[in-house]
Amino acid sequence: MDRFIRRLPVCLAAVLLVLVLTAATGLGLCRSIVGLRQREAENILFYYSEKILLQMQGTMNEAGALAKTAYAMEKGQADPSDWFEHAAGPLLERDEVCITYLFEGDILAAALPKDRFGNLVGRELQDFSYIYTLAKVVKDLVVEGPVVLADDPQQQEVFLFLQPIVEKDAYLGQVAVALDRDYVLGQLGLNDLYTQGYDYELWRVEPQNGNKEVIASSRADVDFSLAQKTVFYLPTQWTLSIQPTAGWLSAAQWVSLILICMLEAAALLALSFLWCTTIQQKRALEKTGSMDKDTGLYNRKGFTAALDGWLSNGDRPVTLFYFSIEGYIQAARMIGEAEELEFLKSIPARLDDYIHNPYLAGRLDAGSYIIAVREKMEEQQREDFAKGLSLELLLQVRMDGEKNFLMARYQYACCQPGVCRGEEEISKLIHEYYRRVSQESPIRMLTEKCCQLIAGKSDVTFDEYTDIEMMELSKTFNRYRKQVEQLAYFDPVFNVGNRPKFLRDTNMLISYDKKRRFKLYCVDICSFSQYNELFSASIGDEILHEVLRRLSRPFGSYVYRINGDVFLGVSLSDESVGFFVTRLQKMFATPITVGNLSFLLQIRIVACLYPEHGETPGDLLDHIQSALRFSKESGDAVVVYSRQLDEIIRTEADILRRMKDAIREDTLEVWYQPIMQLDGGQYTAAEALVRLPDGNGGHFSAGQVISLAERNGIVEELGDYVLSRACVFMQNQGVGLGLKRIGINLSVQQLLVGNSARHLLELIHSTGVDPRRITLEITESILIQSIDRAAEVLEQLRLSGVHIALDDFGVGYSSLNYLSNLPVDVIKIDRSLTKQILTSPKQCALLKSIAEMAAINDLGVVAEGVETQEELNAIAVSGVQFIQGYYYARPMPEEKVCHFLSQQDTVG
């Protein structure tokens, strides 16, 4: 009974521990599942934020085209009343377009429809909403909504798109276009989130009062406080929040977690029972008084008894080894109790791995060990054995952020059985060890410390001695050590910390207080080499000196120059990243003056946080350098490191690697989508499309592949590959299958480089295909970027027989009258226009007008994205000759498209 009562507290403690561990496991699994779902939500948010920005700034920004027209008309000194109604009239015929304004300077010069808003002409900008003034200030597209215009008699809710007209950073005026609220929200496709199982809320911050204004929400009574969020700017702050409709953990997942926790609890209880049994057995051994509780080796009493047993019963000599780790007590205080205990428990295993013959081992005190080996050894064998075992007993200590190693010094002696006694031999061995140590000279100690410095140990201090000459020598070594550290940790030109100093300082910050948070900022001067090249290296150094002086204000002594014009700063303040970055930008808004020269620097700023973005200085440095590379590639002036950014970088690097390997190994896939000619009911053309496998059975987005190729300078190589493959296909299979032409997309970089026409024609001729069977597809953006250069190259290609197609027509800048000036043979109607053919009479009329104008200019018309019979019927009567879309055929690999075309000669 008494025994049971004594064990009861232990049992209760074990049960309590099991419950705690089970709860911790449950919480950990719960967090992991929630974290996984949140990462999925983050990916969805990233897609939708990109989509919203693309829709707002591109597809739905009708004000942009009008602003460009207004700028051109202003150059021609045209009266706005003469052209604006003509230019904006087709827009107002669309159901979703409600209002168009034109401001010249701060005066409203034109307003449509005239019957509702004509009376506003002549008003000043300040008479309207603050959003117009905001567009003037930021000189960039501003989107506001949904709002009800104060002067609108119908009180219709709209989204305002305000596009300033700017020349050399000077504000000339702006164009405002109001789109219907329901149309805009429908284009954003937020309801798809709800069908995917997510509640959503799109809201923005009202700049005037800072209030939250909800734009769209899946349900009105949902609490989004735990939702995943993404923020973007138009330029006001917009936020999209989403969370699963059933919560981050479903009922089935809760049940699974409970079952796992119950199984874990049962397993832990069983292990607890075994552990208790082991503890009891260990205590029984400790009661004998012969074992060291920390290492499991003999203590001095036990070792002496065991050694006496060997010496009295054995017939072979015993070699006795004594090992002492000098400075062990001080090192143990530094590494802590837990790490010391781990070291002590590892010693028996180390001895077993090293000693393969029978041996005795004991721990005499904190850092002293004694080993007895029953083996006949020569003197050199004893020395080698002692050296090797001293390495096994090596103690690793981290001091000031650097690894240091404490070696075990040793002494050994040979004991003869039947003659020696254990206690006497142990005492003689230890006495001999300390006699030898006391006789070691100071010169040797200085030599050892110098060797430690050479090995990189940073906390070496040369001791003082009673001998005057030795004392002076020691002081000289200390001064020299400080000078070496100065050279190792400071930039010699600018007297600022370098990369090793940053690693040491941040490691000390973390070691001193792991809970203290700090932020790491990297400042990179854009195109700094131009200052050295255009002026001189001394001018460049003066600029860098001024940069350091400015950076020392917010960072103090925590400023480091890690590479040329790249600087790091550690901030211990509680300021938010956004506020601190603004301070840095304002600091460099003032030009730097060197002599009579003045320079306004452009800088990139990237940031990461401890411990959120890394728990070691090396991790923080790696992550901020990744963010800096992303900033340079993306062109973003401010980047804050995130796990998502790291994933983007890894994904893009994987895509680039796969793309380069596929091009080099000739394994990059080119698919083909047949195009139907309505008059003859035959597939007379096809479009070549690049497809890069993602390694998981799918393919990467073609847009993402091409964008990465353009940003990394390999789009010409990619374009040449696709063009060659498509030409070979056309020559070997396409002609025989009844195709008259093959279409290949052309990148702006392929078109605008020197001798591009000759290069493209050489590629085409090298495959043997007739150039008249090749159609090169370009987008309007290529023409807009350099219309004269593009027109010249395209004209050379057309003279050689190559056809030119204008892709994505209807979403860019062209008007119908603009077609007569384009060097093209075919226009391809964008899918966004064909998708509205059944729901919008205006779009139907617009499509007919495009077809009629194309016929006047002797241009072919291809409708893209046709998927249903109803769309086909509506498009067919509009005068379009060619159809491309899923209704007839999806993009297919070369083998499948050959089979498809050979099996289907005609389609009803």
Automatic annotation (TrEMBL):
Keywords from the named record: Hydrolase
Alphabetical list of SMART domains matching this protein: EAL (SM00052), GGDEF (SM00267)
Domain EAL: 652-905
Entry annotated with the keyword Nucleotide-binding: no
Residue ranges annotated for the GGDEF domain, each copy included: 516-644
InterPro entries membership: Cyclic-di-GMP_PDE-like, EAL_dom, EAL_sf, GGDEF_dom, Nucleotide_cyclase, Rev_trsase/Diguanyl_cyclase
Record bears the keyword Hydrolase: yes
Gene Ontology MF annotations: cyclic-guanylate-specific phosphodiesterase activity
EC nos: 3.1.4.52
Listed name of the protein: GGDEF domain-containing phosphodiesterase
